[in-house]
Design brief:
Number of helices: 3
Distance between the termini: 42 Å
Number of strands: 0
Structural class: mainly alpha
Length: 87
Amino acid sequence: MKNIELQNFEGTADKVGEQVFKQLIAPMLDEMRATDPDSAKLFAFSILWLGLASYANQFEPDGAKKSIQFTVEQFMTTFDKFNKRPS
């Protein structure tokens, strides 16, 4: 795996999250996808799982479940819109 040069992460929480993704996660995922697509899928799943667990820890259990369900529903709605093909 190639070296990734770290930079300072600054800004609002959403901007820091975006910077972490663009500077760390995306380059690692791209490199893995080029050499071992199955490993890339496992890495992406691990990031998803750890992110959901971290997010869930910000709520009481019932609130976490509702918030994650809402988030997944919104994601799938956006995903479906993005992936629609013209007929």
